Amino acid sequence: MLGIGGSLREGSQSERALQIALAGAAEVGVRVRMLSGPELVLPFYDAGEPGRDERASTLVEAVRQADGLIVVSPGYHGALSGLVKNALDYVEDLRDDRRPYLHGRAVGLAAVAYGWQAAVTTLEQLRTITHALRGWATPLGGSINSAETKFDEGGGASDEKSVRTLRLIGRQVAEFAVTHAA
């Protein structure tokens, strides 16, 4: 299980939300890996440039190997972050794989933004991108308003419902991956 997201700020609210969702996936017994913040600082995706730097190659290979993904983006100005969008653009490198793009994989999605409008529109954009990449968006997605909910370093939050939602998203991805593999 691969988690992608967060922001450049270590310990950001979106990174902490991603950690909670990955913990939910781990509860099902799958191995989890997270790529966030500085690991996602990649050159702008260029389909015409076949060469990839080390970080981009690591990301593409991690997506290739993943049986499910969890993507959490901060909402900036009503949209997903450029950091997360650029990382998702690199999935194009899987177009000719045996499992092209995100084919046959569940993708859990959440957006964390300071306000409901940005959280909801960011989640919708993540769903649209997931569908375009042939992924199966989980039935439950998370829109979290960081003006109302604060995540802590211990894997919790001021709103227990947000924690339950994120853990359930992680479990849904893991359960789909385990069932689909069988």
UniProtKB/TrEMBL annotation:
<dbReference type="GO" id="GO:0010181">
    <property type="term" value="F:FMN binding"/>
</dbReference>
<dbReference type="Pfam" id="PF03358">
    <property type="entry name" value="FMN_red"/>
</dbReference>
<feature type="domain" description="NADPH-dependent FMN reductase-like">
    <location>
        <begin position="2"/>
        <end position="139"/>
    </location>
</feature>
<dbReference type="InterPro" id="IPR005025">
    <property type="entry name" value="FMN_Rdtase-like_dom"/>
</dbReference>
<protein>
    <submittedName>
        <fullName>FMN reductase</fullName>
    </submittedName>
</protein>
<dbReference type="GO" id="GO:0016491">
    <property type="term" value="F:oxidoreductase activity"/>
</dbReference>
<dbReference type="InterPro" id="IPR029039">
    <property type="entry name" value="Flavoprotein-like_sf"/>
</dbReference>
<dbReference type="InterPro" id="IPR050712">
    <property type="entry name" value="NAD(P)H-dep_reductase"/>
</dbReference>
<dbReference type="GO" id="GO:0005829">
    <property type="term" value="C:cytosol"/>
</dbReference>
